[in-house]
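queue> pop job 88
queue> type: inverse folding (structure -> sequence)
queue> payload:
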């Protein structure tokens, strides 16, 4: 069951501290200060201190505060975790682990965090999200989804995944326009199923065309239809679109309440199914409606 809202996960390069105020005030459900690919390699070590300062000093409101560390196969990984957790302590809620290939990658971060939390006497456990963006990670996504009790969500990283797959997404071939169907449908579905089977959430990929809000909205709606709980945002202007797209509307909430009431009434009179506005209501519809109600409660709607 979801423990925090994740409709929008806004990425901000941790080296670019002039962007932090705007990100903190963007209204995102989560902001992650990125120590990985949005930072130039030469900036990655200095960016840790900038991230920790922002986590400690800015007013984040209800936004979940996160960092994206570097992958566990890089020389930066241990320093990212140790330096930022030591400096930010309880002001860091989530660490996003990129390029996860196997469950052991997550275990490595989990063990390091456990040692740090004990040493520092932290009262709150830091949660994890992982990026599936390597073909090997997709192949082992089931074991990854069950790799740590800290793990709350799996994000689909379509950019690196496409490279890992060897997909042709160059200037002569627009995968959205020129490919019949959805080039990433298999990966999205696979991640979705693994996440739900482990009782955690799936978050959809970054959308690079930040000046095309309509297309971003379509991408949000498609991911939401599959069961994704939210989407990565690469620009503050995408946050509101994702927040709206992944929240149930007042009509959906009202309908869900009517479905639950109709089902309960049928149940009380010994029936397992009934009708509402000409539509069947049975146990499966009850589950859908309960999901809508849970989402609405999580978002305070
Ligand atoms: C995100 O990190 C991606 O590669 O899409
Ligand atoms: Mg990536």
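queue> result:
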């Amino acid at each position: 069951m979801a423990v925090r809202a994740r409709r929008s996960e806004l990425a901000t390069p941790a080296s670019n501290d002039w962007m932090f105020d705007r990100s903190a005030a963007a209204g995102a459900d989560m902001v992650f200060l990125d120590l990985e690919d949005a930072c130039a390699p030469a900036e990655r070590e200095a960016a840790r201190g900038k991230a920790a300062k922002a986590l400690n000093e800015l007013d984040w409101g209800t936004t979940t505060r996160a960092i994206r560390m570097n992958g566990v196969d890089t020389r930066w990984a241990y320093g990212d975790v140790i330096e930022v957790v030591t400096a930010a302590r309880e002001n860091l809620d989530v660490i996003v682990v990129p390029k996860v290939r196997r469950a052991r990658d997550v275990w490595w971060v989990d063990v390091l965090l456990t040692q740090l939390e004990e040493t520092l006497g932290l009262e709150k456990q830091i949660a994890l999200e992982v990026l599936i963006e390597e073909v090997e990670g997709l192949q082992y996504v089931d074991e990854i989804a069950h790799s740590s009790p800290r793990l709350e969500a799996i994000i689909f990283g379509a950019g690196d995944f496409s490279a890992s797959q060897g997909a042709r997404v160059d200037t002569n071939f627009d995968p959205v326009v020129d490919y019949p169907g959805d080039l990433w449908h298999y990966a999205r579905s696979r991640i979705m199923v693994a996440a739900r089977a482990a009782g955690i959430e799936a978050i959809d990929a970054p959308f690079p065309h930040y000046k095309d809000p309509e297309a971003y909205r379509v991408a949000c709606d498609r991911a939401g239809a599959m069961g994704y709980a939210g989407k990565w945002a690469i620009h503050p202007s995408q946050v509101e679109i994702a927040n709206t797209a992944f929240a149930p509307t007042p009509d959906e909430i009202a309908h869900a309440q009517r479905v639950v009431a109709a089902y309960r009434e049928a149940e009380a009179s010994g029936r397992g199914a009934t009708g509402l506005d000409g539509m069947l209501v049975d146990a499966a519809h009850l589950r859908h409606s309960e999901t809508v109600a849970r989402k609405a409660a999580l978002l305070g709607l």
